[in-house]
Queue: 2 jobs
Job 1
Amino acid sequence: MSREPWWQTTVIYQIYPRSFRDTTGNGIGDLPGITEKLEYLTETLGVGAIWISPFYPSPMADFGYDISHYTNVHPMFGTLADFDELLASAHDRKLKVIIDWVPNHSSDQHPWFIESRSSRTNPKRDWYVWHDPKPDGSEPNNWLGSFGGSAWTYDEPTEQYYLHSFLPEQPNLNWRNPEVQEAMFDEVRFWLDRGADGLRVDVAHFVMKDPGFRDNPPVPEDWAEVFKSHGAAYDSQLHIHDKGHADNHLLYRDLRALLDSYSPERYSVGEIHIADWDEWASYYGEELDELHMPYNFMLVHSPWQADEIATRIAALEAAIPPGAWPNYVLGNHDDTRLASRIGRHQARTAAMLLLTLRGTPTIYYGDELAMLEVEIAPEDQLDPWGRNTPGAGRDGCRTPMQWDASANAGFAPAGATPWLPLNEDWRESNVANQLDDPASILNLYRALLAYRKESAPLLLGSYDRLDSPSGSFLYRRSHENATVLVALNFTAEPLTAELPTEGTVVLTTEPGEIAAARPCMVELRPYEGVIIEAT
Ligand code: NOJ
């Protein structure tokens, strides 16, 4: 339909590989499991790209975000040959594959860190961030680890501290050392040369630190924390010296040049949790020469109210530089499941919102089924953050994909024990039975994805909000002479929205009959969303 870059017109689907499909019976998903489900992704659901969370060798202190070998596959996930097969099969189906790149830290079991730790004079010493103690022996500054405790761990034998923005098992690489950049870029080339279509950059704004290692100041009293609380101590600091350093931009300009040296076009999306929209948007680059997109978590963190959401979208649209492309995400492997945050009925409205806004959407695996958060007590959490900070646990949003009503929900062979418990509703709510139910949310996602694919206004059109009754959200997407209106009711009451033009309702989030559409007016049932083609 268009000559726009593929990453602007696609829909991304995030796969947490441990939980997608286990073909071996060890209770943990694997790469052949993803390959097996490609038909579901492309034919049944209709997405255009997948982002796979880390599948590299790792001691799994942070479930793969602690990498001990950047250019291989953990045996529990398969082999490099399995990755190649997955990529080839995906490409046969015109599905793009985005891999996770974790530049901020490696595992403490990575050979680079083992060497670095071995002595102060080791050539790899300066590949990580080492610092002398203060004269009283304490940590070099007040920086904290995101999962609790200090960001510094003392290494007795070499009498220095090393920095880790997350667990002690995740030492920070020293990106101020050019050898580190060279080595890490080589690891990127390895995957791009194999054919990977892009990178999701883990905690992209954490990588460069204040070279003076200054203390973070305390949070001003009137500060409202926008993102999920990391724990009282962490949230009591303004993270201006350990996150979001301006030198990150140099790194992403270099990364972009590397990506741009490949054909066909490669893509990057950075995980960037920054509350200030202008600073967040700076990661597109002044010349749009940094990341293709900083991930936008606004819908994950927003109260589920029409006005709040519309206001945030306006702020985002105003903040992004000319020519930059927006994106939206409703859930991921670090946050409470969408359907549990906002309710299953509202998850249908959310699906229409996500797939009709201007920008690239990302769907988190299982959200197309409205999978629920599984309650896992802090003492039973496998997630290190959940164990350190009760309430912050992420196991509940990472439970196995619910494929069908056979043993282990079709996630793992009969007799296997899934690494996390299944949601207890798996027999009633799974891909197989939702496909049979015309009213299911899965069939709504399918319809939305199919419609979006053919709709120039939704793929490419302008966005503007129109007046509508309180509790509803009405917007127009126009491209050339085609216009689509989207009307969403966020309330449990029926509402009537006036339209600026006559139109025909072509899709509704509500099962059953399409709501009666009158010229210039649309009646919305509770929580209903409709797409209207202007006539
Ligand atoms: C962000 C990832 O999304 C999260 O799962 C991980 O724990 C941290 N980065 C550390 O790598």
Note: The CA atoms of residues 409 and 476 lie 40 Å apart.
Job 2
Amino acid sequence: MTSIGFIGLGIMGAPMARNLVRAGFAVTGYDLNADAVAALAADDGKPAASIADAVRGADIVATMLPADQHVEAVVLGDDGVLAHLEPGALLIDFSTIRPETSQKIAEARTRVLDAPVSGGQQGAIDGVLSIMVGGARADFDAAKPVFDAVGKVAALVGPAGAGQFVKAANQLVVGGTYALVAEAILLMEASGVDAEAGLDVLAGGLAGSRILELKRASMLARDYTPGFRIDLHHKDMGIVLDAARQAEVALPFAFQVAAHVQAARAQGLGDRDHSGLLAVAERFSGREER
Ligand code: NAD
């Protein structure tokens, strides 16, 4: 049985680890939050008391952490993953971080994949994530059974860090779509039409999207329970803007989306779901928040 050490059992990591258990892997989980570790143990995973405990003896180590500083500390830090990883074991980092950080890890060790995901909490629960992978072909092939257990689509898109660039493109499209759906809702409501029926029509036509499919009801109800936190999307828009500057391409809409996400944070919505961009649109037009 292939053994996996899984570090970071949050909104995404917990259901991913659970799906790996269901697929027949022996999963040992670690998180700073003891309740998350206990929840995995109750679902036939094994609890770990430390990073070392999760990593020692594992064939594969997976990480799903919030941002660069967490990945740097957990993977590269003293007593971190690399200090305990078995020679020949594979490291898969599912976190969304800066491409430079993924490249730095790949320089410190071979057999490393950056594998950020898209599909949200529901996609993680259903095991249907899209996975964008940077690294070597042989490692990608070796990781395939893991990707099959947590995702629907996995693509190798280039060398170390490449997965993060594709994820940045993904976050640009997701953030931009939320901002536009928010304005569409505001326009319909302010015009006195049936916004719910209107969104149903939009969802079935060329304007349709996964966001309209999954989130239109919660947005109309102003339910911004995360989901994906505005704070994390703010981190991601920073990655998008840096990547654009590096690649010397001008992306005016990316700047616009980043400003909307920044405004949401400034308005105290950092812990809310990114569909909360609707509240920003409402305030921008001086309308009562609903
Ligand atoms: P989260 O905050 O819910 O989970 C992160 C987990 O990491 C937490 O349980 C936290 O306790 C743990 N953690 C932090 N530092 C740690 C440490 N030093 N040692 C052990 N555990 C530690 O975040 P999330 O929503 O699951 O997102 C994780 C990553 O996935 C982020 O990079 C995010 O951008 C990305 N992502 C999230 C979504 C989403 O919809 N939530 C979708 C796609 C990608």
Note: The pocket of nicotinamide-adenine-dinucleotide is lined by residues 7-13, 30-33, 36, 64-66, 70, 73-74, 95-96, 117-118, 120-121, 227-228, 232 (CB under 6 Å).
